[in-house]
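Case study.
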Amino acid sequence: MRVIVIGGVAGGMSAATRLRRLDESAEIVVLEQGSYVSYANCGLPYYVGGEIEDRAELLLHTPESLTARFRLDVRTQHEAIAVDRAARRVEVMDHRSGVLVELEYDVLVLAAGASANPLSAADIPVHTLRTVDDVDAIDALLPRDGSATALVVGGGYIGIEATENLVRRGVPTTLVHRGPHVLATLDPELAVLVEAELRANGVELRTSTEIESVDRGEVRLSDGELLRPRLIVNASGATPNTGLARAAGLRLGANGGIAVDAQNRTSDPHVYAVGDGVEKIGLDGEDALVAMAGLANRHGRTAADVIAGRPERNSPALGTTVVRVFGLTAASLGWSEGRLQRAGRPYRAVHTHPMSHAAYFPGAERMALKLLIDPADDAILGAQAVGGAGVDKRIDVLAVAMAGGITASGLARLELAYAPQYGQAKDPINQLGYVADNVRTGTTATVQWHELPALQRDGAAVVDVRSDAERASGAIPGALGIPLDELRERLDELPDGPVVVYCQVGQRGHTAARLLVQHGVDARNLDGGYRTWSAGRAAELAASETMEAR
Amino acid sequence: MRVIVIGGVAGGMSAATRLRRLDESAEIVVLEQGSYVSYANCGLPYYVGGEIEDRAELLLHTPESLTARFRLDVRTQHEAIAVDRAARRVEVMDHRSGVLVELEYDVLVLAAGASANPLSAADIPVHTLRTVDDVDAIDALLPRDGSATALVVGGGYIGIEATENLVRRGVPTTLVHRGPHVLATLDPELAVLVEAELRANGVELRTSTEIESVDRGEVRLSDGELLRPRLIVNASGATPNTGLARAAGLRLGANGGIAVDAQNRTSDPHVYAVGDGVEKIGLDGEDALVAMAGLANRHGRTAADVIAGRPERNSPALGTTVVRVFGLTAASLGWSEGRLQRAGRPYRAVHTHPMSHAAYFPGAERMALKLLIDPADDAILGAQAVGGAGVDKRIDVLAVAMAGGITASGLARLELAYAPQYGQAKDPINQLGYVADNVRTGTTATVQWHELPALQRDGAAVVDVRSDAERASGAIPGALGIPLDELRERLDELPDGPVVVYCQVGQRGHTAARLLVQHGVDARNLDGGYRTWSAGRAAELAASETMEAR
Ligand SMILES: Cc1cc2nc3c(=O)[nH]c(=O)nc-3n(C[C@H](O)[C@H](O)[C@H](O)COP(=O)(O)OP(=O)(O)OC[C@H]3O[C@@H](n4cnc5c(N)ncnc54)[C@H](O)[C@@H]3O)c2cc1C
Ligand SMILES: Cc1cc2nc3c(=O)[nH]c(=O)nc-3n(C[C@H](O)[C@H](O)[C@H](O)COP(=O)(O)OP(=O)(O)OC[C@H]3O[C@@H](n4cnc5c(N)ncnc54)[C@H](O)[C@@H]3O)c2cc1C
Ligand SMILES: CC(C)(COP(=O)(O)OP(=O)(O)OC[C@H]1O[C@@H](n2cnc3c(N)ncnc32)[C@H](O)[C@@H]1OP(=O)(O)O)[C@@H](O)C(=O)NCCC(=O)NCCS
Ligand SMILES: CC(C)(COP(=O)(O)OP(=O)(O)OC[C@H]1O[C@@H](n2cnc3c(N)ncnc32)[C@H](O)[C@@H]1OP(=O)(O)O)[C@@H](O)C(=O)NCCC(=O)NCCS
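After joint prediction, the assembly is written out as follows.
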């Protein structure tokens, strides 16, 4: 059996190595158009910034090491030009010799990844940040003395990583993002935390902004600003590499990626496809383009298993993601509130702001956590977190809970490891479960930050149950202040009619709402408290200001 | 309704506060024999060591703050002396006034915790480390100039925390542990990693050792050693406080804790019990004494829910635990291999030694991971981890997977958050799943470290597939060295008959085993590689040396 793999990095090489372990006798040829295989795509930005010092660290394997260990026939600078499915033949251009060769296969694995969406910027060098060659080029272009500036286009996670690393390298950097907020997997009230961190670290962030024109080294942005960057990094998104597949008549999916089944088989049973080039199984079984290293690696292994006759199958992709943004970590999985709204799907949202570990132990850091819940069955639909320590842990826990079918309320019962350095006796995840359960059971009705204006218009009073000192440092306009610990004694100060209570994060508000409801007041708690409300307001303001500036 | 809660810390106060939120009108009296309520038991050791500097940090609430917020009637220095169930009456000694009072209840909640097992040591002060008063006493006794030495009895997690903090305070400390290895929830080959860390930080660790006698300030250990400690900390285990319950004729469980149902109801429907004093639901539904803050807090809340007429129920306790040991983190959940063996229960074990995050990104730390699996249905039975960063995260993920019924092989499909600072494209948890799946499917048969001697006696050859350099720095006696990358070319050097291959952690061994099996060799892989084998051997040696020394 001869197996040809096109693309020699995450998905392709994972397929090749696993297949060798399963089948010592197969002939396995890996074609890679670039000069390197098995490199750490995800590490590339950090070599630009110098956090990864040794370039060799980026290269996990060489063709030689892969031959020695796995008897793979790895051919770099070999580009697959065309696939003849009828003849089961790949046409290959050897860029070293310039010779075109034809290779027959029994099984073909397409793992060609994705390419940056094109960005034409005339006379300033536009670079992508996707390959070792890319970082070499950026490295060569940029002095380390702060004399050059850069423009990064696209505030997704690659754009943010590029920005962070350019700043780290001493390059003043402007980050231009088309949408109103960076990191599309986050809802606005979490994305603004990331935006604040970018700005606090000197990034010139321009949201709702695009490049309008480039002329003789000068870039004009859609907000009128003029820049003269030495370098433009194009991180404006990527498109599946489907040229070969399309030309060969393979079926594509709803979003333009190669269509595959749960075993990574394409519409041709002799052809498999994995990685950024293919559609994944979405949360509802729909086609979904989720371009993540973990999925590419795992699905490469799935393809190998299936080729070797094993019954492996992929599960739906949650789209779990995490990115470091200077001192912050931002992570998410599943549906966002925005996506749920656009899909017209009912949901419940819960916001909390817990500490990463016991507040009494030094070093605890606060995070913002958000959970999205299916009101029909209490299932977890998605989650987001932005903060310091412990964010990645909580998102992982939620990803496993979601995969394991644990309900939102069921989070309360999870028995997570607790010592003061690591969590809390009631872990943030347990508390999330408590809050979700209180909403589910109607124990405390909540109001989302974006629902407050309408309620106020309808006559609801807003009561701030924080301390006077907290209120003095920022409050919701028009709120009546009665600290929680005085509430029982000051019930008569409340106006008639519905009341929305709030505190800093929602916790005292919950106790206040319980108290009031039992005293006959129609009280609801502002979910996530002042923190979520003010983040949501900041997000709205930022979006409307950039709209006005246009 | 009058509810009396006996014990005003983790379980008791959680019951009281939740009950207030559910029932504004109940009269809630909390009796606490000590001077403080709602203190951070788990933080106490770190105040001794100085990491928590401000004593006030230990006190989460005061009676006053609890009255203001929750209208609780909190009475400190009030000891419950007896319970008259027929009359629904508690006899209470007010230690401030010396007056005995009687209080009637509709519902009683027992949350009296546990007490240190007694340790009689004649004329040297013996302290426990369980209350604020305890740490005040230890603090007062110890100079900070290194002139006093201490002896800690018991190498469970409280004993280890006490030891770490005494060392941090500059007090040379001997830790005496009766069993062959510290931290009973860990199997020996993981416990030795903790023991090495203790020794590396200057702790005089004596395992398989007890106090034999104490005479005029001099302690004689069972190994003959003589010590003159200023302080003895008794951390030799704790026993549920069941005096009141027993005298009142409440049913006790198999391990001497108060018996309760899944709603924390005792054998008297008017009496609930929570926390360290009660039996939990074990992994197989059996009685189990699991004394953890998370369970105490959560079950306190359960009791409140049930008292208020809600349908809350507890799930079985996994016994998830974590402790910091100087630079290491040690964590575990569920069954250990030792416990499974003692129960005669079949299991599969998997050991790995992954990096906390991508090896190419600075700061990755290696951990030892162990998974225990039910061979009948691939269910996760337990897990252990010792290492640096990311240990708590992996144990939490495994705890959720176990709670969610995700199988060992299913770990391979979990979609965990990956960026190079946080994990790996194939996270350690995914790899654990792959290894488990390979064992389950017979893809690679493995050998446990403790099974090797018998196999060698039966004639199996041992082949070391690491590099020459690795082999030079320590290898299994009698092993034949053939580096993995040369294995295909040197097959003829292998002896006839069964072969056990090994590498450093098991990963190359797996590839080697796959290769050999397909070339007709009866090959198995040493699970966890040289690291696990040498840790296991060290554990055996340590245990047998202390046996010989006696
Ligand atoms: C800067 C950066 C940071 C990232 N960070 C993260 C992260 O933190 N976490 C995460 O989960 N994911 C991250 N990713 C995404 C992750 O790297 C991809 O999801 C993953 O590499 C996709 O694997 P793949 O095999 O589909 O494609 P790739 O790994 O991109 O490999 C495809 C290969 O195919 C080759 N190829 C294409 N066409 C041909 C042809 N015709 N003939 C021969 N060879 C061809 C390409 O040269 C390329 O080397 C990052 C990506 C980048 C670029
Ligand atoms: C030093 C130390 C470190 C710990 N670290 C951790 C950790 O890192 N992680 C973890 O999960 N767990 C830890 N624990 C365990 C955790 O603190 C307990 O599991 C938890 O506190 C048990 O709660 P409880 O309500 O049952 O008992 P407690 O919190 O101990 O409260 C019981 C209270 O009842 C009072 N009482 C007893 N009898 C009477 C009576 N007759 N009348 C009136 N009052 C009475 C006692 O004075 C006591 O204050 C630690 C414990 C200690 C001591
Ligand atoms: C590295 C690469 C070549 C794949 O090689 P690989 O050997 O299949 O993968 P890994 O090194 O992760 O090893 C996984 C194998 O080791 C096994 N393994 C891991 N730890 C083990 C242990 N302690 N004991 C036994 N086996 C172990 C796993 O079971 C798995 O084998 P299997 O697939 O047969 O079950 C490929 O992923 C690659 O090129 N990566 C670089 C690009 C990339 O991933 N980029 C995106 C992220 S930056
Ligand atoms: C602190 C203590 C008094 C309990 O007080 P508590 O108010 O019940 O508990 P918490 O402070 O954790 O708050 C939990 C409540 O806040 C709610 N909550 C938490 N975050 C919230 C948020 N962001 N929005 C809304 N509600 C929130 C939870 O739902 C829960 O309310 P519920 O039980 O009605 O559902 C008690 O646990 C105690 O005395 N602890 C100290 C001793 C101890 O635990 N020792 C061992 C560990 S060191």
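Observations recorded in class. The first helix of chain B runs from residue 10 to 22. The longest strand of chain B covers residues 380-387. We will return to this complex in the next lecture.
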